[in-house]
Write a structure and sequence with these properties.
about 280 residues; alpha+beta; Diaminopimelate Epimerase, Chain A, domain 1; about 20% helix; globular
Length: about 280
């Protein structure tokens, strides 16, 4: 894959990538600073008037191979985005020929590896299990929150609320996710998952992402769900998670939560100056 073009007077170069339908606009700010404002992020995110994405990712220079900054579709930022990290890792591996990378995020330093057969693995770091780190508004048992359904709270650099249900397909996720994203127990809002055990170490999961809505997949949500399932004794620490957009494999090891799955580079293009100026 060729390296992305640099920003010119004609507009802003970008890539569109996805991991299991969890889609991203990726811009490269390693050669020069690119000022992303909430208004610009929201404009690019619009699926009719812009490009459309679940998250926007900016690649910057860092202490490792690159530093990543994530924006949600509503213009807010996120410290972590697992599938976007895998997508950028795949791009940088093909750009550099490396099979192992060190990427930094607000979440911390994340190791990425080529897993073979077109798959990319990222270590999303140790899960945050203490109520202060997730964070929650008050001290509670994070394994079973005082919320109807007894969900589990997990931090993966962003907050998660995982409900284990009999039938994930039967949950009206648009209403359900919107309700719990803003639960007062989560001062920074939360990602919401509904997870169904369908076999030994095999989970069916659907996800509502804070600042976005329903998405076809979520890497950090998959990691959080796998950790929650293992903590509750429903699975071991290595699981397969089937999402609306496909399958991820999660392995909670001593050095962190490893996530493995496919990525896709859909297209490269350039946002026009006219479009960019309309968002100022």
């Amino acid at each position: 894959m060729p390296a992305m073009q640099r920003q010119t007077d004609t507009g802003l170069p970008l890539m569109k990538m996805h991991g299991l339908g969890n889609d991203f606009v990726i811009v490269d700010a390693r050669a020069q600073e690119i000022g992303i404002t909430p208004a610009l992020a929201r404009g690019i995110a619009h699926r009719q008037f812009g490009v459309g994405f679940d998250q926007l990712t900016v690649i910057e220079n860092g202490t490792g191979d690159a530093h990543l900054v994530f924006y949600n579709a509503d213009g807010s930022t996120s410290a972590a985005c697992g599938n976007a990290t895998r997508c950028v890792a795949r791009h940088l591996m093909e750009e550099t020929g490396k099979t192992e990378l060190l990427l930094t995020t607000e979440r911390g330093a994340l190791m990425a590896r080529d897993a073979g057969d077109g798959l990319t693995s990222v270590n999303m770091g140790a899960p945050q299990l203490d109520w202060r780190e997730i964070p929650l508004a008050e001290e509670v048992d994070t394994l079973e929150l005082p919320i109807e359904g007894g969900p589990t709270a997990t931090g993966m650099g962003n907050p998660h609320c995982t409900f284990f249900v009999e039938d994930a397909e039967a949950i009206p996720l648009e209403e359900f996710g919107a309700r719990y994203e803003y639960h007062p127990l989560y001062p920074q809002r939360t990602n919401v998952q509904v997870a169904q055990l369908i076999g030994p170490d095999h989970i069916r999961m659907r996800v509502w992402e804070r600042g976005v809505g329903i998405t076809l997949a979520s890497g950090s949500s998959s990691c959080a769900t796998a950790v929650a399932a293992a903590r509750r004794g429903l699975t071991g620490r290595k699981v397969q998670i089937d999402l609306d957009g496909g399958t991820l494999w999660i392995d909670w090891r001593e050095d962190g939560v490893w996530m493995t799955g496919p990525t896709m580079h859909v297209f490269s293009g350039t946002l026009t100056r006219e479009f960019l100026e309309s968002l100022r």
